Structures are given as C-alpha cells and as structure tokens.
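Question (not urgent): is this output format expected?
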Amino acid sequence: MKILSVAYIILSAATAFGFTPSLQAPTSNRGVATTSLNMAADQLYIDQNRRNVMNLILVGSAGVTVAGLGLPYLYFFMPPTPSGAGGKVVAKDALGMELKVKDYLESKLPGDRSLVQGLKGDATYLIVKDDKTLEDFGLNAICTHLGCVVPWSAPNNKFICPCHGSQYDPNGAVVRGPAPLPLALAHREANEDGKIVFSPWAETDFRTGENPWWT
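Got this back:
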C-alpha cells in the first residue's frame, strides 16, 4: 500500500507541473520543407530575371561597340555620293565651312599653298599666285607612293613627303622618288556665290603631256 501511495503522489505531481506524457503523434516537417522549396523557387526566378537583364545589357553594349568600329569600314567601301552637278564640290576648311574666294584670298599671302577639303573629301592644296589670285587647279595632297599626306615646304619650295622622302615641285610633278606619279589635279573655279569649287580633271595632265592617271 505504501508503494501504491508513493506512485500515486509522483503521478499527481507530474500532472500538476505539466509533465503529462503526450500521446499525440509528432508534428510532420512536410509543411516546413514545402515552404522552403517555394522560397528557393522564387529566389531562382528572381536570379534568372537578373541574369536575362545582364545578358541584354552585355549584348547591347557589344552591338554598339561593333557598330562603332564597323560602320567606318563599311563607309570606306561605299562609293562617294555626288555633291553637285558634274561632280563639283564646294571647297571647305578644316571645320567644314564653305570657302569663298574673296575671304580666302584676304587671309593668305602670295605663294601660299594651304590644305582644304576637295573632291571626295580629300585633302587638296589651293595655290595663291603672286598676283594674289588663285590657280585654276588644285593639287590632291595624297602621295602617289603609299598614300601619306604630303606637306608643303616653303623654304624648299617643294612638297616633301615625310614617310619615304618623295618630293614634288610647286605644281605637284615628281622631282624625286619613290613616288611614281605626280599629285592628282582638280579643276578650280568660283560659282555664282563666289565660293571656291572643285571639279574632276579629265583632260591631259599639263605636267606630263599624258592622260591623267587618276581617272
């Protein structure tokens, strides 16, 4: 009887302090696992969107770069567009401003040979004569050896190429190689607005007595 009394007292104390054994089955972790999977899927979806945006930015940047590098090369191989009747073009300065005969001569000295934009945009020399008028031709500044721009050397009274030493006289005829041909010619005239105009030279080259090599 004493043993039963002691067992009853222990059971009553356990019940009073909340230590009653639970017969309920343990709660399943399935709900927690499902929630975790859903969160991971959402995170994966967000990361994929970010990845797509970054790919678009990368492709767009590469496209702009390729276009910027490639278009000038494509433009180089495109035939020039005629700029006026009979292939005539108005001479322009380095800033792209059209040149007038009167204004140009007022800013130059006799014997001056300065570069302007000529046919096809090529660097072309305008020549001021001793009487302060312009020669009726312009000289293309591209060396006929390897295509360097040939500067005018006033002290030497010659065009001297800095690349390989070719030399041309004041009218562009070769006086020293390795350049094989004279500088190309262009007609020079003034239009009704007094602007300097270049047009193709297709006649005999007065320096060689031969047909122009550049046509």
